[in-house]
Amino acid sequence: MKLIVIACLAAVAVAAPQYSYGAPRAASSEEVEFVPILKDDRVHEEDGTYNFDFEAANGISFSQSGSPDGDEDAVIKAGEYSYTAPDGTEIHVRFVADENGFQPQGAHLPVAPEFPHPIPQFVLDQIAKAAEEDAARARGDDSDEVSAPSGFYGRPN
Q: What is the pLDDT along the chain (157 residues), one digit of tens a residue?
Protein backbone atom coordinates (compact mmCIF):
# COMPACT_ATOMS: atom_id res chain seq x y z
CA MET A 1 0.00 0.00 0.00
CA LYS A 2 2.85 2.40 0.86
CA LEU A 3 4.45 1.64 -2.48
CA ILE A 4 1.27 2.69 -4.34
CA VAL A 5 1.04 5.97 -2.39
CA ILE A 6 4.71 6.75 -3.06
CA ALA A 7 4.27 5.93 -6.77
CA CYS A 8 1.23 8.25 -6.97
CA LEU A 9 3.10 11.10 -5.28
CA ALA A 10 6.06 10.63 -7.62
CA ALA A 11 3.73 10.71 -10.65
CA VAL A 12 2.12 13.94 -9.44
CA ALA A 13 5.52 15.55 -8.83
CA VAL A 14 6.75 14.63 -12.30
CA ALA A 15 3.51 15.80 -13.97
CA ALA A 16 3.46 19.19 -12.18
CA PRO A 17 4.26 22.20 -14.39
CA GLN A 18 7.86 23.34 -14.20
CA TYR A 19 8.29 27.11 -13.83
CA SER A 20 11.47 29.02 -14.37
CA TYR A 21 11.01 32.41 -12.76
CA GLY A 22 13.24 35.22 -13.90
CA ALA A 23 14.43 33.57 -17.11
CA PRO A 24 12.60 33.21 -20.42
CA ARG A 25 11.28 29.79 -21.30
CA ALA A 26 13.45 27.76 -23.62
CA ALA A 27 10.56 27.19 -26.06
CA SER A 28 9.98 30.95 -26.52
CA SER A 29 12.20 33.17 -28.61
CA GLU A 30 10.76 36.31 -26.94
CA GLU A 31 12.44 37.87 -23.97
CA VAL A 32 10.35 38.57 -20.90
CA GLU A 33 10.40 42.25 -19.97
CA PHE A 34 10.07 43.34 -16.36
CA VAL A 35 7.59 46.23 -16.10
CA PRO A 36 7.61 48.16 -12.82
CA ILE A 37 4.29 49.06 -11.22
CA LEU A 38 4.18 52.79 -10.54
CA LYS A 39 0.86 52.96 -8.69
CA ASP A 40 -1.47 50.37 -7.15
CA ASP A 41 -3.99 51.98 -4.81
CA ARG A 42 -6.97 49.89 -3.69
CA VAL A 43 -9.79 50.80 -1.30
CA HIS A 44 -12.52 48.32 -0.34
CA GLU A 45 -15.23 49.55 2.03
CA GLU A 46 -17.38 47.29 4.23
CA ASP A 47 -20.57 48.36 2.40
CA GLY A 48 -19.23 46.89 -0.86
CA THR A 49 -18.05 50.09 -2.51
CA TYR A 50 -14.53 50.07 -3.87
CA ASN A 51 -12.11 51.92 -6.09
CA PHE A 52 -8.66 51.23 -7.38
CA ASP A 53 -6.03 52.94 -9.43
CA PHE A 54 -3.26 51.09 -11.27
CA GLU A 55 -0.43 52.39 -13.42
CA ALA A 56 2.56 50.58 -14.92
CA ALA A 57 5.77 52.00 -16.38
CA ASN A 58 4.86 50.75 -19.88
CA GLY A 59 1.91 53.18 -20.08
CA ILE A 60 -0.88 50.81 -19.04
CA SER A 61 -3.27 52.43 -16.59
CA PHE A 62 -6.58 51.31 -15.17
CA SER A 63 -8.91 52.92 -12.67
CA GLN A 64 -12.32 51.75 -11.59
CA SER A 65 -14.88 52.38 -8.87
CA GLY A 66 -18.03 50.48 -8.02
CA SER A 67 -20.83 50.10 -5.56
CA PRO A 68 -23.64 47.58 -4.96
CA ASP A 69 -26.45 49.87 -6.14
CA GLY A 70 -28.13 47.71 -8.77
CA ASP A 71 -30.95 45.17 -8.66
CA GLU A 72 -30.24 42.26 -6.30
CA ASP A 73 -27.07 44.04 -5.10
CA ALA A 74 -25.50 44.02 -8.56
CA VAL A 75 -22.37 46.14 -8.62
CA ILE A 76 -22.48 49.30 -10.72
CA LYS A 77 -18.99 50.06 -12.09
CA ALA A 78 -17.39 53.00 -13.85
CA GLY A 79 -13.83 53.59 -14.88
CA GLU A 80 -11.28 53.99 -17.60
CA TYR A 81 -8.20 52.29 -18.97
CA SER A 82 -5.50 53.18 -21.43
CA TYR A 83 -2.56 51.52 -23.16
CA THR A 84 -0.52 51.66 -26.35
CA ALA A 85 -1.62 49.23 -29.06
CA PRO A 86 1.03 47.17 -30.91
CA ASP A 87 0.75 49.55 -33.89
CA GLY A 88 1.60 52.54 -31.64
CA THR A 89 -1.96 53.89 -31.33
CA GLU A 90 -2.84 55.33 -27.94
CA ILE A 91 -6.01 53.63 -26.70
CA HIS A 92 -8.17 55.29 -24.05
CA VAL A 93 -11.52 53.80 -23.01
CA ARG A 94 -14.06 55.11 -20.52
CA PHE A 95 -16.79 52.72 -19.43
CA VAL A 96 -19.86 52.17 -17.31
CA ALA A 97 -21.13 48.71 -16.41
CA ASP A 98 -24.63 48.66 -14.94
CA GLU A 99 -28.03 47.08 -15.53
CA ASN A 100 -27.66 48.01 -19.21
CA GLY A 101 -24.42 46.04 -19.57
CA PHE A 102 -20.88 47.13 -20.40
CA GLN A 103 -20.91 50.49 -22.20
CA PRO A 104 -17.46 51.52 -23.45
CA GLN A 105 -16.63 54.86 -25.07
CA GLY A 106 -13.46 55.56 -27.00
CA ALA A 107 -12.32 57.35 -30.14
CA HIS A 108 -10.99 54.07 -31.60
CA LEU A 109 -14.27 52.14 -31.21
CA PRO A 110 -16.44 51.67 -34.31
CA VAL A 111 -19.72 53.58 -34.52
CA ALA A 112 -22.80 52.20 -36.23
CA PRO A 113 -23.74 54.16 -39.36
CA GLU A 114 -26.80 56.35 -39.38
CA PHE A 115 -29.92 54.69 -40.76
CA PRO A 116 -29.79 55.52 -44.48
CA HIS A 117 -33.38 56.66 -44.93
CA PRO A 118 -36.61 57.23 -43.02
CA ILE A 119 -39.00 54.30 -42.55
CA PRO A 120 -41.88 54.59 -45.08
CA GLN A 121 -45.33 55.29 -43.65
CA PHE A 122 -46.86 52.09 -45.08
CA VAL A 123 -44.31 50.06 -43.08
CA LEU A 124 -45.19 51.95 -39.90
CA ASP A 125 -48.91 51.33 -40.65
CA GLN A 126 -48.27 47.59 -41.04
CA ILE A 127 -46.38 47.47 -37.75
CA ALA A 128 -49.21 49.31 -35.96
CA LYS A 129 -51.85 47.01 -37.49
CA ALA A 130 -49.91 43.90 -36.42
CA ALA A 131 -49.74 45.28 -32.87
CA GLU A 132 -53.53 45.85 -32.91
CA GLU A 133 -54.10 42.27 -34.11
CA ASP A 134 -51.81 40.90 -31.41
CA ALA A 135 -53.66 42.89 -28.75
CA ALA A 136 -57.05 41.68 -30.06
CA ARG A 137 -55.84 38.09 -30.11
CA ALA A 138 -54.57 38.45 -26.51
CA ARG A 139 -58.03 39.71 -25.46
CA GLY A 140 -59.59 36.69 -27.15
CA ASP A 141 -61.39 38.87 -29.68
CA ASP A 142 -61.81 36.69 -32.81
CA SER A 143 -64.35 38.93 -34.54
CA ASP A 144 -63.90 40.27 -38.06
CA GLU A 145 -63.50 43.82 -36.70
CA VAL A 146 -59.76 43.43 -36.96
CA SER A 147 -59.06 43.56 -40.68
CA ALA A 148 -56.01 44.35 -42.69
CA PRO A 149 -55.60 47.77 -44.29
CA SER A 150 -56.09 48.02 -48.00
CA GLY A 151 -53.01 47.07 -49.91
CA PHE A 152 -51.80 44.75 -47.13
CA TYR A 153 -50.45 41.79 -49.07
CA GLY A 154 -51.63 38.27 -48.40
CA ARG A 155 -54.89 39.21 -46.65
CA PRO A 156 -58.33 40.05 -47.94
CA ASN A 157 -59.70 43.60 -47.57
A: 777 777 777 777 777 666 655 555 555 567 788 899 999 999 999 888 999 999 999 999 999 999 888 667 678 899 999 999 999 899 999 999 988 889 999 988 888 777 777 888 999 999 999 999 999 998 887 555 545 555 555 555 4
**38/154 Cα distance (integer angstroms):** 69
Distance (Å, rounded) from C-alpha 108 to C-alpha 90?
Answer: 9
The pTM score is 0.51
* 3 to 7, 8, 9, 10, 14: CA distances (angstroms): 6, 9, 10, 10, 16
CA dihedral 72, 74, 76, 79 (to 10 degrees): 180
CA–CA separation, 72 vs 148, rounded Å? 45
